[in-house]
Write a structure and sequence with these properties.
- Two copies of one chain form a homodimer.
- By secondary structure, chain A is mostly helical.
- Chain A folds into two domains: about 50 residues, Arc Repressor Mutant, subunit A (Orthogonal Bundle); about 150 residues, Tetracycline Repressor, domain 2, CATH 1.10.357.
- The first copy, chain A, is built from nine helices and two strands, in the order H-H-H-H-H-H-H-E-H-H-E.
- Chain A has a two-stranded antiparallel sheet with strand order 1-2.
- In chain A, helix 1 crosses helix 2, helix 1 packs across helix 6 and helix 7 crosses helix 8.
- Chain A starts with 5 loop residues before the first helix and ends in a 14-residue tail after the last strand.
- Chain A binds a DNA duplex through helix 3.
DNA sequence: CGACAAGTGGGTCGAATGTCCCACACGAGG
DNA sequence: CCTCGTGTGGGACATTCGACCCACTTGTCG
């Protein structure tokens, strides 16, 4: 009998649940499918979690917390804003291409939350917005530009774009078409900024988190 | 006993299914929930359709065919490209605000198709692309501009944007924020076009459907 | 060693699901 | 009138689901 403390079992179950959702979809992620993936018994499931719903909630929160990275370009100095944005989006596309099922799982979880736990979906979205804001601020600072539209608005635009590009790629799986669209998107977003005249550059402390 | 020919019963069932999906989500659209909504017996369901899956397929195809309209601006002459795009997106947002559950249902159906009937999802996406192309061509022609990026790419960008804005609004239900984002989006997309010098204007026959 | 909490396994419950069956009600066509 | 094909109703089926229960093992701590 493999005796394992509850909290590690919880982690294992959450990880297994994510794998099942990714590979077979949320509606196939039954308690039995999850425990099979985690190689446990049903009893262990309900020992670790009150209900399936609680696990799904935890899964959303968990997966949400680890979405930190991505999108942030590798911050190369001296590149134009368009280049930085393009790099960022391309990096995201690479990540998407590497783990498409994961991103599809995220989408399904968002939609599930939208029906049953709206606040969770809003938290998720707020997280994306924060990352977008930071990336945009950084990109503007490093390329010597400033946004002509409110940062919050540009961030919303960027998030909407990544969501849309994600769906686009997930549906068509057309790398080249998605890349073209991403390039155009970067150029379009960059048009919402203008160069800061040399000398009036504001100190980059504003670009912090 | 209400004797009804099969084909009208099929239509009624599809309509009822859409209402159920919209109000309660795809996973709650069981055969029983649907026949209850349509006020029929279970036998009528399986007399009209082989299986639930067949109904869902038909629902996707059906709902897909009726998505024609929207996004196309009311084509006012003499307005700038940015204005036309803004109008188009605003019109879409209004539509979304008027029938949020329907659009949410479309999203769920797309995602379902993505897992089980990918070609259907691709058809749906191709349909969106076609509408976007037509709208963009029309808008450029009426505002005396031409796209500096390939039309197909700009269309992909526009579709991605509407998808993203849809998700954004569905999650946050913040009318003003979404409108701001839409305005910024219109401006950004418009930056991918440039005015056609007077005199070199191409005949607008190219703008036809 | 003995008691007790923590963790495990297997079986089971009621509810819901998709599907199917069969006896019946009609209207049309002979 | 009878018959036959198209619908219709009310169950019934096996399967799956989430949840739970209880008897059990194992480590820990006194």
């Amino acid at each position: 009998m493999a005796r394992t403390p509850v909290d590690v079992r919880r982690r294992e179950l959450i990880a297994a649940a994510l794998r099942v959702v990714a590979s077979r979809g949320l509606h196939e992620a039954s308690t039995r499918a999850i425990v099979a993936e985690a190689d446990m018994s049903l009893a262990s499931f309900h020992y670790a979690f009150e209900s399936r719903d609680e696990l799904i909630d935890r899964l959303i929160i968990d997966v949400l917390a680890k979405e930190e990275k991505a999108v942030l370009p590798d911050a190369l100095e001296g590149r134009s804003l368009t280049e930085l944005l393009t790099d960022g989006l391309m990096g995201y596309l690479d990540h998407l291409r590497a783990e498409p099922t994961r991103e599809q799982a995220m989408l399904e979880l968002t939609q599930h939350a939208l029906r049953t736990r709206r606040p969770l979906a809003q938290d998720q979205y707020a997280q994306y917005l924060r990352i977008a804001r930071e990336s945009l601020t950084l990109a503007a600072a490093h390329s010597g530009s400033r946004w002509t539209a409110p940062l919050e608005t540009v961030a919303q635009l960027l998030v909407a774009l990544t969501d849309g590009l994600t769906l686009n790629w997930l549906v068509n799986r057309d790398d080249e078409a998605s890349r073209e669209a991403a390039r155009a998107a970067a150029q379009a977003v960059a048009s919402l900024a203008q160069p800061v005249p040399a000398g009036t550059a504001r100190h980059s402390a504003e670009a912090a988190a």
